[in-house]
Amino acid sequence: MAGSGVFAEIIDGDVFNYYADGEWKKSSSGKSVSIINPTTRKVQYKVQACTQEEVNKVMEMAKVAQKAWAKTPLWKRAELLHKAAAILKEHKAPIGECLVKEIAKPAKDSVTEVVRSGDLVSYCAEEGVRLLGQGSFLVSDSFPGNERTKYCLTSKVPLGVVLAIPPFNYPVNLAVSKIGPALIAGNSLVLKPPTQGAVACLHMVHCFHLAGFPKGLINCITGKGSEIGDFLTMHPGVNCISFTGGDTGIAISKKAGMIPLQMELGGKDACIVLEDADLDLVASNIIKGGFSYSGQRCTAVKVVLVMESVADTLVEKVKAKVAKLTVGPPEDNCDITPVVSESSANFIEGLVNDAKQKGATFCQEYKRDGNLIWPLLLDNVRPDMRIAWEEPFGPVLPVIRIGSIEEGIHHCNASNFGLQGCVFTKDINKAMLISDAMETGTVQINSAPARGPDHFPFQGLKDSGIGSQGITNSINMMTKVKSTVINLPTPSYTMG
C-alpha cells in the first residue's frame, strides 16, 4: 500500500512529503496539492506545495552535493545505481498501485513500467562505466603546418545540476530515464514530477534514498506549476533541463538560459499503409499503437494514412479488433481505462464533435462516462478536421484515405510535429524511400511507433523536441567535453 512499510517516512498525515538533502520534509507553505483519481474523480493523494524559497535551498544543496559526487569513482556510482534498481524492482507492487490510482494505468502495465525502469537504471550504470571510462588522445601534427609538439587529452565531465521534468503517462520510467544518465555522469538532480504521477515518483525516489546515495544529490520538489514552474526552469542554479511533455516545453525552451536542453514534446505519429501491406499485421499494430493505455502515449499511432484501394478492408479489420477491446477501471486490467483528467476528456470530445460536424464516418458510437471514453475509429477524415492535425491523447483514431504515397508523405510532413511514424509494405525499397522522405525522428517499418527499447535513440523534429534521448545519448547530453593540452618544447615522435 502507498506510504506504508518502508515508505512510511515519505508521508506526514495524509500529505506526502518532498525530498531534499537526504530527508523527507514538510513544506513551510502549509499548503498541499490534491491529486485526483481519474477513475473515481475524487481526491486520491495530496503532496506538498513547495515554495520558491525551498527551491532555492534545494538548488544550493544540489550544487554542493554535485561537487563531491563528481569525485566519486565511476564504479561506485554504478554500484549505487544497481542497488537502487534492485530496490525499485523489489517494490514494484506499491509503486504500481500508485500508477493505477494516479493515472489510471492498467495494473499489469503499471508493474511492467516499474520493472522496466529498474532495468533502465541498471543498463545505464553499465553503459556509463564503459562510455565515460574512455577519452581521446590527439596529436598536433595531424593538422597541416604543425609538428608533434602538442598532446590533447579529452574526457567527458558533468554539467552540474540537472532539472528533470517527466510527464504523467510514464512518470516513473521517464523520470529514471533522466535520473540514471544524470547520476552516472556525475551530476546532481532536481526532479519536478507531474502532479498526476507525483506520488509514484516520490516512492521511486525513496528507492534511491534507500540505496544510500549522498545527501543533497537527488531532490524531488512537488508543487503547483503556476507557483514554482517558471521559477525552477529559469533558476540560475540549473545547468541542464530534460523535459518530456507537451506545449509547456516550447515555453521552457524560450525562457531557459544558455544551458543544454533535452525536450520531447509529443507527436502526431502517422501510419502509412501501402497496397501490398499485410493488413492483418497492420490492424494488430493499429490497435496496439493507437489504443494501448487509451492512446495516451507520445508514440501512439495518431493518424492512419491508407491507400484507397485497401482502405475498406483495413477499416473492417480494425473495427473487428476494436470491438474486442475491454473498457473499464485500471484495477481490472482493461484495455481502455479513463483518461487522466476531465479537461483531457473534454478536449478529446471537442475533437470528436468537430469531426462529426464536418462529416467523418463514425465506425462506433461515441460514448463517454466521466473520464472514460470508449475506443473510437473515425473513417473518411479530411484535412479540414482538427483531428487530422491535433494530438488527442486519447482512444480516438482518425483514418485518412490517400490516393498516392506522395499524398501520405505530404500529410505527414505538413504536421508541426515530427516525433515518429511508421510505414507498412512488403517492398523494402519503397519502405526505405518513404522513411527517408518522412520528417520524423524515427520511422518504424512494419511495426507501430514505440519508444524503446530504452537504449535506442529517441528524438523528434520540429515541435516534437530538441536533442535525442536513449541511454547513451542522454549520458552524452548530460556531459561536456574537457580538453587538457600538453605542450612540448620540441617535437616528439613515437619510435622516431
TrEMBL record:
InterPro entries: Ald_DH/histidinol_DH (IPR016161), Ald_DH_C (IPR016163), Ald_DH_CS_CYS (IPR016160), Ald_DH_CS_GLU (IPR029510), Ald_DH_N (IPR016162), Aldehyde_DH_dom (IPR015590), ALDH-related_metabolic_enz (IPR051020)
Catalytic activity, reaction form: D-glyceraldehyde 3-phosphate + NADP(+) + H2O = (2R)-3-phosphoglycerate + NADPH + 2 H(+)
SUPFAM superfamilies: ALDH-like (SSF53720)
Active site: 264
GO CC terms in record: cytoplasm
A Pfam family the protein falls into: Aldedh
Single GO MF annotation: lactaldehyde dehydrogenase (NAD+) activity
Record's subcellular location: Cytoplasm
Chain ranges of the Aldehyde dehydrogenase domain: 24-483
UniProt entry keywords in alphabetical sequence: Cytoplasm, NADP, Oxidoreductase
Its EC number(s): 1.2.1.9
UniProt similarity note: Belongs to the aldehyde dehydrogenase family.
Protein name per Swiss-Prot or TrEMBL: NADP-dependent glyceraldehyde-3-phosphate dehydrogenase
Annotated source species: Fraxinus pennsylvanica
Higher taxonomy: Eukaryota, Viridiplantae, Streptophyta, Embryophyta, Tracheophyta
